[in-house]
Structure formats: structure tokens, C-alpha cells
Protein 1
Amino acid sequence: MKLNKFYFTLFALLVAIPGVSQPLVKQNIKETSDKLIKSALANDLGFERLAHLTDYYGPRLSGSEVLEQGIDWVVQEMEKDGFDRIWTQPVTVPHWVRGKESATLDAPIQKELPMASLGGSVGTPEEGITAEVMLVKSFEDLEKRSAEANGKIVLFNVPFTTYGQTVQYRVNGASAAAKHGAVASALASVASYSMQTPHTGTMSYEEGVKKIPHAALTTEDANLIERFIKRGETVTLTLKMEAKNLPDAQSRNVIAEIKGSEFPEEIIVMGGHIDAWDNGHGAMDDGGGCVAAWEALRLIKETGVRPKRTIRVVLWTNEENGLRGANEYLRWVQEDEKSLDNHILAMESDAGVFDPIGFGFSGSDDAYKILVEIGKMLKSADSGEVRKGGGGADIGPLMRNGVPGMGLNVDGSKYFWFHHTAVDTIDKLNIDDFNECVATMAVFAFAVADLDVRLPR
Ligand SMILES: [Zn+2]
């Protein structure tokens, strides 16, 4: 009798612990996930759509007509996919235009340098700005030699370490230089590798500091200038930039969803950003992330299995130079008191659709454990690893308001070769890697949407 009671207690205890009594990821989810992986890997519609988007609507900078035409095309294509709801959300966006631009080395040799004005920068006078170059290796270096900066073009030649560190010179370089009297500023492109490719990107001005033009040169040319200066040469540069900020323009977030069968108010949101820089085609950044999320939703729809919760794709606008799309999405969500709470998980792909590794997740340990279980279903694609920590710029506003978030982790070895350049084109991507990204997004989104339990916060 005593022994029986012991076994009964043990049994009751095991039943009470989720994950021991019954698997969280049930057989039917596994079967649908297998189907999703197979269909993702055998498909070329997503990659073809990505090629179409980026070939026809490449330089999708906020405020441009081509961005809005690209959005129209996406909506039109989505109509063919039979989603429950597709709509666009108006967003007011900054409107910066590059215009013509050039950088010319005048001394000690004459040379036209490939260059890219940085997003948000003011232009130069029509005749350009010609000045001696003061090359610095860091903000500290600039501070130390502050007296030399007056009337010069300050060139930050800072070796790439991480994007987060090196990008500080792109974002804050102009005001740092202007404070010491520089007439313009430039930097070696924020790039881990270069083939004379200038990398653009956003920059900003500190309030109360004079706005001076700010541009990227290639790492090769920044190093060339450094070698000249080390030999004791005086280096002179002419920058001509038509860049200017126009009044704000209208853009849109694109939203598509399939409604959940049991808890339609609970939402798994995934996506990327539809805008891109104006010098390339935004294939990697971030057409790939957008179309991968869209294709994942289409494949889920195609299985005929309606998940318990709603899965929503959002293609955010204006990530690159304003994040207005992501902020507008949050503002809209917050109009409904319960909606933020009902955002179960936010997923983003904005690191390129290269060979996927898995996801980086920011949320509770309980949720993490469930996601690790889900990741095991992606063993065949080797893309189910869930690491702690991760997210993305467009899901940032949701995450800061309590929504668990995760960003797709991929082989990042080439991302900063192409990032924000003219060579961010479809040929840098590979259909098999892209399809694996689709499979990875589809499986995680579907499984979380179809769990018996709500992913814990
Ligand atoms: Zn991006």
C-alpha cells in the first residue's frame, strides 16, 4: 500500500510538470513542420519574387516613388496568395535625396574617388568644398589634436571591428568634427571587406552644432590617404554633394495575416523592412528578410492547417533612416489596450538571408526552453539553434514594451561586404540559403502559433 501511494504521488508529480507529462511540441505540429521544410526547400516562387522586387524596385529609399511602386507590387502579389487580410498602414517618413556627388583627390595626386554621401547629410555649396584632409584614427585622436581641425576635412579612418562600434563614426562623425571647426567630414566605409565600394547609411547631427557635409570614401582610398600623410604629404580633397533633406513624405507598412482558429486575437508577428538604400537593390538588406517572412506565411497557408493563433507578416517601412514604420506599428498596436499583451512573439530577419543558424531570442527562460524544443524540428536544415539574446531594429519598439522578440541568425561572414552598397543585388544570395531561411521562419512561427500553451512572457 505504502509503495503504491509513493508511485501514485510520483506519477501525479510528473503529470504536473509540463514537458515531462506531455511534449509541448505535439505530433501534429511536427508533421506540419516537416511539410513546411520540404515545401520551402523545393520552392522557387519566393526567390523569384525577391529577384523581381529587387530588379524592378531596387533603390527603395524612404520618400522615393520606387519604394511606393515596390509596395504596390508586393500588395498586388500578396492578393494572389489567399491570405485572410492584407492592408497597408500610412507612415510619414523623412525624405532625403542624394543628388549628384563626387570626391576628388587634388593633392598629392589627382584622382576621382568613389564616394557616398551619408543619409541625412547636408550638401556642399555648388562649387564644392576643397580643403586639406586631417586624418584621425578615433574620436579620442580628434580630441587630442583638436587644434589642427579648423578649416579641414576630417577623415575618420577607423578599422572595422563590429558594426555597432564602427558605425559610431558614420552616425556621429560630422558633429564631432564640426565642433572643432572642420568644414566637412568623411570616413572610411563601415565595411569588413571592400572592392572600392563606398557604403552609405544614416547619420545624424547633434543639436546646436553646425551641420557640415558627411560622406563615406572606400576603405582603399582612406588607406591611400593615410599612406600619403605618413609620408609627410599634404592631402587635399574636393567634395561636391547635392544631398538635401526635403519635407516629409508618405509611405506605408505592408501587413498580411492568416487568422488563428482558436485564439485569433493572439498574434505572432514576423517581418523585415521594405525600404532600402538608394545606391543598390536592397536584396540582402532587407528585401530578403521581407520576402522570406512573406513566403513563410504563404507556405503555412498552403499546408491547409490553420494554426491556433494569428500569424501576421509586417514589412516595415523606413527602417534605414528613421524607423518610422516600426514606431507607427507600435503606436497603432497601443491604440487597443490588449493588443500589445496579445503580441505573443515578434520575429525579424534583417541580417541577410544567408545560410541560417537559428534565432537569437530575448524573453523569459520558460519561453526559451519551448523555442529550443521547436528548434529541434529544424535539424535537417541545421537552422534550429536558439541563442539567448537577439532581436532587431523593427521589432525593437515592441520588445521595449514587453513583447518577446527574436532575430534570424545567419552566416554573417559576408554581410558587411555588401551592406548599403551598389553591390547589394540578388546575385549575392543563394536560393538554397534563402529557402532555408523561409523554412526556419515558417517552422518557428507556425509552431508558436499552434502550441496548446501561450508562449510565456
Ligand atoms: Zn536592414
Protein 2
Amino acid sequence: MAKVLVVTSGKGGVGKTTSTAALGAALAQMGQNVVVIDFDVGLRNLDLVMGAERRVVFDLINVVQGVAKLPQALIRDKRLENLWLLPASQTRDKDALTEEGVKRVIADLKTKFDWILCDSPAGIERGATLAMRYADEAIIVTNPEVSSVRDSDRIIGMLDSKTARAERGERVEKHLLVTRYDAGRAARGEMLSIDDILEILATPLLGIVPESQDVLRASNVGCPVTLNASGSAPAKAYTDAVRRLMGEAVDMVVPVERKGLMDRLLRRRAA
Ligand SMILES: Nc1ncnc2c1ncn2[C@@H]1O[C@H](COP(=O)(O)OP(=O)(O)O)[C@@H](O)[C@H]1O
Ligand SMILES: [Mg+2]
């Protein structure tokens, strides 16, 4: 059975698009048929992070409006043959996306893919509501800071009230993904701890992705970090998250600060 997963957060810039690309690629690496959909109408970011921006011809709105057929708009990843992208449109008319249209496209995708990952725009308005509307499960992306956690709390409320599942009296299964986690800053009390976040949001933890230059490098070359630097700490965190999504029991490791050699030498000398 195909699963529809929304990657959402409320706040912008927390790592939704990065996570959609990384999780989608990791799922595809495990042999699953995956499509990632960019719901961020007007901004269009997912195609960049996936390195497909020059190959966009038709988009989600074209398909919703019947201007293009789904196979014309789907872009196959150059690295993984079972990973596909349905890009967003750069149009300013955000109302071009209709609930009925999205429902139809998702129903169609469900006959072709195992996983449908919806990359949500920021905010709690129409775009974010449409992205989560037909989700079976949700990944709530949060950074360890108060404003991000507060917005996530609002999104959790929306998942429980504004989704098609909620209206049918069913649950949308929720997973919390903490991203841009900086162990050093957490240790110094400059960021919320994982325990603080879990206490506020009371949502099962799917993973903790450390703040890392590997993510920026991957993004700059248009390749999901799980493919571009598969041995890196963030890639491992995303891969573990995917294994948990698929039902495996994987131990959760809270990243700890790894002091550099110079740091330790200087400290020893100072002591
Ligand atoms: N783990 C991470 N480490 C470092 N930078 C990150 C990490 N995750 C995301 N970023 C960066 O944060 C910025 C916002 O990420 P993005 O995925 O576009 O967020 P959103 O889709 O929620 O707006 C991007 O520049 C991205 O490269
Ligand atoms: Mg985004």
C-alpha cells in the first residue's frame, strides 16, 4: 500500500526541503519506489536540492489544471531510477492548486509509487494545509529553538483537525525529526535539549540530524546528502530515520560534541 507522507513544520528554513530530498533518496536506495512532490508554489526549491532544476518542463499545477499529464511532469532522478520528482510551479497564483486537483494527483501517484513525500511550504495557510491534506503520516521538522518548536506545536494541531484522515476520525501518524542539532550549543544550554523538545511536543522521535557542512555542500551540488556524502553524520541520521519509518528498531543516538584535536591540545596546554 502506498504511503503519503507530509514533511511539514510551520516555520521556514528549518530543513523541510533538505529532509524531503534526503529521506526520499534514502528510501529509494532501499529499493522503494519514491516520488517527492514540491508543494512550495512560487518558491520551487526541491528541484534545486535534487539537482533537477534544468529539467523542469511541467509542474504540479500544470497537472492539477490538466495542462499536462502526470508522466509529462514527473522527472526521474539521474542517480536513482526509482526516485522521481514532481516539481512546483513558479507561478505567483497560489490559488491555482485546488483540493480536488491535489486529491486526484495523489490518488494517481498512489497507483505508481510506494512512498509519496510531500514537501510543505512554510506557514499554516492554504499551501501547508494542501500539502498535509491527504497525508497518512507526517514528519514534523523542528530545530532546537523555541520559535520552531512552537510552530511545530501548531502544525500538530492542524494535522489532528485539517487533514482528510482527521475528518474521517482517523489518525495521521506523527514523527518528529529534529534537524540542525548542534551538540556543542545544546551542551552549553544555548539550544533546547532533545528532552525539552519531546516534553513540549509529545511526539515520537524519528531522528536527530546534526548541523553539518555536509548538508550545505550537498545542497550546493544539487544532490541529497544521503547520496552525496553517504558516510556523513547527517546522512546516517537520515538513513536511520528511514529505517525507523520502515518499521525497524534502530537505536537513537543523541549527537555529542566532538572536540577537535587542536581544541583538546590547547585546553591541555592551558590547564
Ligand atoms: N542539518 C543541517 N546542517 C546545516 N544546514 C542545514 C541542515 N539542514 C538544513 N540546512 C540548511 O538550512 C537552510 C534551510 O533548509 P531548507 O531545507 O530549505 O528548509 P525549509 O524547506 O524548511 O525552508 C538551507 O540552506 C539548508 O542547506
Ligand atoms: Mg522548503
